[in-house]
Design brief:
Layout lengths: L10 H11 L5 H12 L20 H14 L7 H17 L4 E5 L15 H6 L7 E5 L3 E5 L4 H7 L6 E4 L5 H8 L5 E4 L6 H13 L3 E4 L3 H5 L12 E2 L2 H4 L3 H14 L4 E4 L2 H8 L1 E2 L12 E5 L4 E4 L7 H7 L3 E4 L4 H6 L5 E4 L6 H9 L3 E4 L4 H6 L3 H28 L7 H13 L4 E4 L4 E4 L23 E6 L1 E3 L2 E2 L2 E6 L6 H18 L3 E2 L4 H13 L10 E3 L8 E6 L13 E4 L2 E4 L3 E4 L2 E8 L8 E6 L17 H18 L5 H10 L12
Parallel strand pairs: 1-5, 3-4, 5-6, 8-13, 11-12, 13-14
Antiparallel strand pairs: 1-2, 2-3, 7-9, 8-10, 10-11, 15-18, 16-17, 17-20, 18-19, 21-28, 22-23, 24-27, 25-26, 27-28
The protein binds manganese (II) ion.
């Protein structure tokens, strides 16, 4: 369909159209709704949002709604210089309320990785746009706390004259507060934006300084005049064919889990738990198909859903049925009060401290534990596994088209990181059931590849030069599955001996994990060393986890399982999807990572004396053989690589054009340990 955009005819014309369609909303209502849509991650061509105004909008009404939306879109064009008045306004607010300072975390009420524009308080105040961080503004000084990923970014985005830069784990907030606060002072925080574990820790630091920590209304909201409203992206049903289990059945099963824990209810504050439980999806934030909201899951499987009703499409309401009671978000406190005297499950690591404070005030018996949906969601059912395999096939075809194109284009020079990841995105957009990327692509050439969470921007965009390594970590959201894949390419095909050695060690670790067999009950932290051992043997390592959980058309990073050095008590269970992504990074030199998604499967091991598990690889795309040093591989590793490539070739060839298929055939040729035996 062509982009034939109408111009907005004005509020009176819209009012007439609304009347003609029999919609009872006023123009002001519609404007508020559209502001919410604009404050979400709803793409311009989204088909669902006009249905929030009228179940079946006429073409004329729909055109006017889309035109109105275009007139209302705007961005925050603030520069570093604009931040000073904002910080001054915050300090005036502090003085008014007799507070010494206020905490501004990056987090929103759901502690999510992606937050809506309304919750981007840290960026609005300081300019910092990273995915984690916190500012503490006191009357006479201020500090920004970011982790190792963002030590460079914070310096480029945040005014060093206004903020001290601190490393969040090496120079943590609590230690800073002990030195910065004076006896008798009060530090304010917004209890919706911090977990109870955080509040306990920060409060202890304040006490050590003789000061106190106090829950207050959000001070940034008080001074942010044009703060966007909460997002209102249309909430749509997640098709049963993809979900594999009806929402009614999930509610019954999870209600039983709540009852079994001896509780009357579980507080659900994580939107991915909510989306999974009710088979709903949304677009309130970018990259993850989430509707933001809260819920109380009762022991009988009934659910109170605290969500703005304006964003529910008729189809979503229909699916929710009679056992999901819709309540306004502001009524959550009442819902918690109704649990007075009862036992209630709430997650100390993700629920807002406000929830705990309210429950304790209501004298509920709070059990500090994850909501039962988190583990249930992590164990994918057969329909979800079948869906993700199809999604990976489409995604693998897109990645292969990209790699084939890259092999031809990059050696000529002139290609940049941003141009390359844009090209990959366009290949993915061609795929059926594509909805969005699953995260911002990491497209890093040469030394940029060594920055683990690098994001190419127009300022950093670098040419992908022949003779360098190029790392591309990317993924997509399809209706039937979420993908995440990293490939490292030797541009021009002539890597150095050191690069081949490092790559092959990373690959050996990847293969060791892919081939692992382990008894049921084994955790990801127990397996983590398998992926590192070949690097350790050469005195090398990498500073990130080996694997994270991945959702089913949900978050690309989900728990509770993970494969990491950090202790983790969650056993790997059949149906869980995790990434397998060892890497190696040479600062100012190059970066290497090989990432496939894998799923936990039961294994039939002859003679096994206990139930055994292993992994099946889901990701389907070639690994650059120019970087493989066969003499470093065992025969079993060679066999794995050849078998993987045979499967990639067989699965993808029918999906590819002839030229790409020919490239893939060459790229996936079997290799042998001794070079002369190849072919
Ligand atoms: Mn990953």
């Amino acid at each position: 369909m062509s982009e034939c955009r109408a111009t907005y005819q004005g509020d009176d014309a819209l009012a007439r159209l609304l009347g003609k369609t029999g919609v009872s909303l006023t123009v002001a209502d519609v404007r508020a709704l559209v502001a919410g849509v604009n404050a979400a991650a709803v793409p311009g061509d989204d088909a669902d949002w006009p249905k929030l105004v009228a179940a079946e909008p006429s073409p004329a009404l729909e055109a006017q709604l889309r035109a109105l939306r275009a007139t209302m879109e705007e961005a925050d064009p603030a520069t570093k210089a604009d931040r000073a008045p904002r910080i001054a306004a915050l300090r005036a607010e502090l003085a008014k309320r007799r507070l010494v300072g206020f905490l501004i975390p990056r987090a929103d009420e759901h502690q999510g990785e992606y937050v809506p524009p309304r919750a981007m308080r840290l960026a609005w105040l300081t300019g910092f746009t990273g995915s984690a961080g916190l500012a503490c503004v006191l009357a006479d000084r201020a500090a920004m706390f970011v982790d190792g990923r963002y030590t460079l970014q914070v310096r480029s985005q945040v005014d060093g004259g206004a903020f001290e830069y601190r490393h969040s784990s090496e120079q943590p907030l609590d230690a800073w507060l002990v030195g910065a606060l004076k006896p008798g002072e009060t530090l304010g925080y917004d209890p919706w934006l911090h977990t109870i574990e955080e509040v306990t820790r920060i409060s202890a630091a304040c006490t050590r300084a003789g000061a106190k920590l106090s829950a207050v209304d959000n001070l940034v909201d008080a001074i942010w005049k044009d703060q966007p409203p909460p997002p209102l992206a249309p909430v749509i049903p997640h098709d049963l064919a993809f979900a594999g289990e009806a929402a009614d059945e999930k509610r019954r099963r999870m209600g039983e889990a709540v009852a079994k824990a001896g509780a009357a209810a579980a507080v659900i504050t994580q939107p991915d738990s909510l989306a999974w439980l009710l088979n709903l999806r949304g677009r309130d934030v970018s990259r993850t198909p989430l509707p933001l909201g809260f819920a109380l899951l009762k022991e009988d499987g009934a659910v109170d859903l605290y969500m703005d009703r304006r964003k529910l499409t008729p189809a979503a309401r229909m699916q929710m049925g009679n056992h999901v009671r819709l309540r306004e978000p502001e009524e959550l406190g009442d819902g918690l009060d109704e649990l007075a005297g009862r036992r209630v499950i709430a997650d100390p690591r993700s629920a807002p401290s406000w929830v705990f404070q309210r429950l304790e005030k209501a004298r509920a018996d709070v059990v500090r534990a994850p909501d039962p949906c988190q583990l249930a969601k992590a164990c994918k059912n057969p329909a979800e596994i079948a869906g993700t395999k199809l999604a990976h096939l489409r995604d693998g075809a897109a990645v292969t088209r990209f790699l084939s194109w890259l092999a031809k284009s990059a050696p000529k020079g002139g290609l940049t990181e941003v141009a390359a990841s844009d090209r990959l995105e366009s290949f993915r957009r061609d795929g059926e059931r594509f909805r969005d990327l699953s995260f911002d692509s990491i497209s890093g050439a040469g030394p940029n590849g060594a920055i683990v969470h690098y994001k190419a921007t127009p300022e950093t965009d670098r040419a992908i030069k022949p003779g360098e390594l190029y790392l591309i970590d990317s993924g997509a959201q399809y209706l039937d599955g979420t993908t995440d894949i990293t490939r490292t390419i030797a541009v021009g095909g002539r890597p150095t001996a050191e690069e081949r050695d490092r790559f092959t060690r990373v690959l050996k670790g990847h293969i060791a994990l892919a081939l692992a067999r382990f008894p049921a009950g084994t955790t990801g932290s127990q397996l983590d060393a398998l992926a590192r051992l070949p690097l350790w043997q050469a005195g090398l390592d990498y500073d990130h986890g080996t694997g994270h959980g991945v959702g089913s058309y949900l978050s690309v990073h989900e728990g509770p399982q993970r494969i990491s050095k950090l202790p983790n008590t969650q056993a790997l269970m059949p149906g869980m999807i995790v990434s397998n992504e060892p890497g190696y990074y040479k600062t100012d030199g190059y970066g290497i990572r090989v990432e496939n998604l894998i799923t936990v499967v039961p294994l039939e091991v002859p003679g096994a004396e206990r139930p055994m598990l292993g992994f099946e690889t889901l990701t389907c795309a070639p690994i650059d053989l120019a970087l493989v040093e066969p003499s470093l591989l065992t025969q079993a590793e060679i066999d794995w690589l050849n078998a993987y490539h045979r499967r990639v070739r067989e699965m993808l060839t029918p999906e590819l054009d002839r030229e790409t298929a020919a490239w893939l055939a060459e790229a996936t040729k079997p290799i042998a340990r001794r070079a002369e035996a190849a072919d």
